[in-house]
Amino acid sequence: MASKSNIKTSNKKEKRLESIKKAHSKKNTFTTTMEDYLEVISELVELKGYASPTDISNYMNVRPPSVTKMLRRLDADGYLKYTKYQGLKLTAKGTSIANDIRQKHSDLLDFFEIIGVDSSAANKDVEGIEHHMNPKTMKQLRKFTTFLKSNPNLLLSFDRANL
Amino acid sequence: MASKSNIKTSNKKEKRLESIKKAHSKKNTFTTTMEDYLEVISELVELKGYASPTDISNYMNVRPPSVTKMLRRLDADGYLKYTKYQGLKLTAKGTSIANDIRQKHSDLLDFFEIIGVDSSAANKDVEGIEHHMNPKTMKQLRKFTTFLKSNPNLLLSFDRANL
DNA sequence: TCTCAATGTGTTTAGCTGAGAACTTTTCTA
DNA sequence: TAGAAAAGTTCTCAGCTAAACACATTGAGA
């Protein structure tokens, strides 16, 4: 009886530990939505020097309360420094991620243009896939695109075949 | 006063209509997870002639109750015919989607192999992006891959440059 | 200084995905 | 063929993401 009871206790403890673990690991989750926010913020800063919640709300097509919530989260996770009513500033960590994703975006667009996808469709696809490409894969793609560009005759013959 | 009251009523009616609309449109949502299930099911059927909940559970890395739930959903939305304890059968609609996604998967793998992404990384990326590629983009990519394959010397010079 | 637009907060809603426990059905085997 | 084992199902619940509404607060310009 005593041992059975101990087993039960042990199971409970395990469950408790597991939920604590989950609760903590949650902190580290970085979602594609967060990535999108960082991308938009970085572009706004480049465009007009700052990024107001209202601007972000417009570009992300979400309501201002959602923006505030996300800004607090991005701040808590160290991607930017956000002081209410005072504006925000990307940290090194946030800047790095924003640059990464913007680089991916433009590299992918580049490639899609080369293979003849019209820019409207290309943009749509890129937004979907840019969050799922490993750095290694992007590196290869970049190499390949560079190679293609350095051999314009190849592209010309593809374009001819592609009529 | 009467008019104000009318406006309120009108707003309420609008909201009611909107929620009805949402309730109905919900039916049409098709998620990437559903697409994954269809893909796995289709592959299992090809492999061993049928797809049991346990098999699906293994391949999807989820517990059986989750599988049952998804099967009921896929049935309700017309992607397959599912009779409990009796097995399932993809409908034309479900087959078409499964084929589409499997085609995308292999075309993307094909391309990644050509540009020199190792198959482990390639597989991982493909799983992420296959759900986000438009048919038009895939068509162009397919054309491009075919073009490359029909000009092996191009690939050779890329491989040389890529050492 | 007062007002109004912008911004922030707390709370609620909605959806997706998944899991555990307990039960039912089917299958296997002794 | 009975009865145990395996497979499948149902019910209930939880975690997470995302967004909206209602309301409170702030601050900049008339």
TrEMBL record, chains A, B:
GO terms for molecular function: DNA binding; DNA-binding transcription factor activity; protein dimerization activity; transition metal ion binding. Residues 30-91 form the HTH dtxR-type domain. Residues 11-20 have a biased composition (Basic and acidic residues). Keywords: DNA-binding, Transcription, Transcription regulation. Residues 1-20 are annotated as: Disordered. It holds the Pfam family Fe_dep_repr_C. InterPro entries: DtxR_MntR_Metal-Reg, Fe_dep_repressor, Fe_dep_repressor_sf, HTH_DTXR, Iron_dep_repressor, WH-like_DNA-bd_sf, WH_DNA-bd_sf. SUPFAM superfamilies: Iron-dependent repressor protein, dimerization domain, Winged helix' DNA-binding domain. It comes from the Archaea. The keyword Transcription applies. Belongs to the DtxR/MntR family. This is Transcriptional regulator MntR protein. It comes from Marine Group I thaumarchaeote SCGC AAA799-N04. The lineage of its organism: Archaea, Nitrososphaerota, Marine Group I.
